[in-house]
């Protein structure tokens, strides 16, 4: 319902402004991909889940590129984009943990970190936008590692191969970067309340 409302608001504007809202429409599309991806995982259609997950990941890059390259930024997009990312990764990680594809302790760590920062994420994001600050390197590493681990885990299930060393290495990287990036948000909030 939230995604449909946001999508209708994008296209209820004057047509001349529609291209500027294209990144928001793509973000809403990413929201709408969450349910099909989870459904495919639950019914063991890992090939379809992998394809849809790759599509969702590409959509994240496309809406970000459009917003930066054409300066199609909006306040709505500021909130929608991180929400779409959190919804996608939380749903995929929880489902993979439920299926014993990923360790539940890692799933709990990722979800706990996201829940911890979600309440203050919008405040931090607004401050960062106001000052021109950018996300930390460790936060970018964490995001990339989470996406890569989920993608690899689904692909392994789809093609029925065993890559335990690669999976284990990514699990460690995700765990370490999740803790580090979570602490970064906390420290940044405590030490720089005026940002």
Question: Notable features of this structure?
Answer:
globular; 7 helices; 195 residues; mainly alpha; Four Helix Bundle (Hemerythrin (Met), subunit A)
Tell me what you see in this structure.
This protein has 195 residues and is an all-alpha fold. The protein is globular and about 45 Å long. The protein has 7 helices and no strands. Mean pLDDT is 80; it is low at 9-17 and 129-133. The chain has a single domain (2-191), classed as Four Helix Bundle (Hemerythrin (Met), subunit A) (Up-down Bundle), CATH 1.20.120.1760.
Q: Care to give the gist of this entry?
A:
The chain has 195 residues and is mainly alpha-helical. It is built from seven helices and no strands. It has one domain: CDP-alcohol phosphotransferase transmembrane (TM) domain (Four Helix Bundle (Hemerythrin (Met), subunit A)).
Helix content: over 70%
- Mean of the pLDDT scores? 80
What radius of gyration results from the CA coordinates?
17 Å
The strand count comes to 0
User: Strand count, sense and closure of the main sheet?
Assistant: none
Runs with pLDDT <50, length 5+? 9-17, 129-133
Query: In the CATH hierarchy, what is the superfamily?
Result: CDP-alcohol phosphotransferase transmembrane (TM) domain
Q: Could you give the order of the helices and strands?
A: HHHHHHH
Number of helices in the DSSP assignment? 7
SSE inventory with pairings:
Layout: H1 2-11, H2 22-42, H3 46-69, H4 75-98, H5 104-131, H6 137-159, H7 164-191
Helix pairs in contact: 1-2, 2-3, 2-4, 3-6, 4-5, 4-6, 5-7, 6-7
